[in-house]
Automatic annotation (TrEMBL):
Gene3D superfamilies: PucR C-terminal helix-turn-helix domain (1.10.10.2840). Belongs to the CdaR family. Residues 284-339 form the PucR C-terminal helix-turn-helix domain. This is PucR family transcriptional regulator. It comes from Streptomyces subrutilus.
Length: 353
């Protein structure tokens, strides 16, 4: 039988082992089992399929059976069982090693990609192995939930399966990083990240997803990833509502926070007088947040604070008296709202100097 191309080269000495075992009815020796394990490892590394190899083992046993002494059928079956078991053990061990190496290589690539630590030219070459063409612009979506997630977690596997089933490979990378779910997709296909965001929100039980802007090249992936992370951080500090955040919609906040000293001066100058209120600045600051977040609609702001409209109106008057700025006056509103945003960014008054 011509075994070339079917893994038959890994059946060396197999027929002799069967004949020797059947001659005395003995079990395979340790050396014989080790030899079959080694052949299994080599077959896996050569890329042969295990089913094809098992069939080749059984075919060889059938070929030699007519030449064996009568009454040795049971011994032959036992020897085949031991030989195939050892071969499969070696094959599976090699497969596990390959998987571990692939996982390690993928994790190293993901780390380098999202941290920008590797040479960009070399990174682009490695990216092709994982289905990314870094010559194109990419955008990154990052999802976080109530608990951290890893690559092997059911949540991560389920989202990856859903995204790839819907869009195929299409230059997409799904992974996890520091407990968050990450999706890298072509910048001109926003439907991919939108679908990822929808699936991630559902799978994490109401988590939050941020999407960075599209940027070209390997460095663009890092830039978009950092934008998404910053958007998640801003959402926490600013108490932004909604499960989906777009970094492009939040560009005003980094601008405001860029000159920290100026922002601290603005917050302290405008809102510092609120400390004189009974109970400190926090209740009145919360009132400002609710009022501006509700579009300066008193009834909605009162509902958010579980207050009566009369109580809310009283608080707004107190703010005006203490700061000299009327939240309902368009001329004063911008200064107060900017200061209130700065208070959130700086965690004022808790983090005030």
């Amino acid at each position: 039988m011509d075994e070339r191309g079917t893994g038959g080269e890994h059946l060396a000495q197999y027929a002799e082992i069967l004949r020797a075992a059947c001659a005395t009815g003995r079990h395979l020796t340790r050396d014989e089992r080790d030899a079959r394990r080694a052949e299994g490892e080599r077959a896996a590394e050569a890329g042969h399929g295990l089913r094809t190899l098992v069939r080749a083992h059984l075919a060889t046993a059938r070929e030699i059976q007519p030449g064996l002494p009568a009454g040795t059928a049971r011994h032959l079956l036992e020897a085949v069982e031991q030989a195939v078991d050892a071969f499969a053990e070696g094959y599976e061990r090699a497969q596990r090693d390959v998987v571990r190496r692939e996982e390690a290589a993928r994790r190293e690539f993901v780390d380098d990609l999202l941290y920008g630590r590797s040479d960009l030219g070399r990174l682009a070459e490695r990216a092709a192995r994982f289905g990314l063409l870094l010559s194109r612009a990419h955008a990154v979506a990052v999802a976080e939930g109530p608990e951290p997630y890893g690559d092997g977690f059911p949540v991560a596997r389920g989202i990856e399966s859903a995204v790839l089933a819907r869009f195929g490979e299409r230059n997409i990378l799904l992974t996890t990083k520091e407990g968050r779910l990450v999706c890298v997709a072509p910048g001109d296909q926003p439907d991919i990240l939108a679908f990822f965001a929808k699936r991630a929100y559902a799978a994490t039980g109401g988590g939050r997803v941020a999407i960075g802007r599209a940027h070209p090249g390997a460095g663009g992936v890092v830039h978009s990833y950092e934008e998404a992370l910053n958007a998640l951080g801003l959402a926490d500090r600013m108490e932004l509502e909604g499960p989906l955040l777009h970094a492009a919609d939040l560009l005003v906040y980094p601008v405001l926070a860029r000159d920290r000293e100026a922002m601290e001066d603005l917050v302290e100058t405008v809102l510092g007088p609120l400390r004189q209120a009974r109970g400190g600045a926090r209740p009145l600051l919360d009132t400002l947040h609710a009022y501006f977040d509700s579009g300066c609609v008193a009834t909605e702001a009162a509902r958010r604070l579980s207050l009566s409209v009369r109580a809310l109106t009283y608080r707004l008057r107190r703010i005006q008296l203490l700061t000299g700025a009327d939240p309902a006056d368009p001329q004063h509103r911008y200064t107060l709202q900017t200061a209130a945003i700065g208070a959130r960014l700086l965690d004022w008054p808790r983090a005030a100097r």
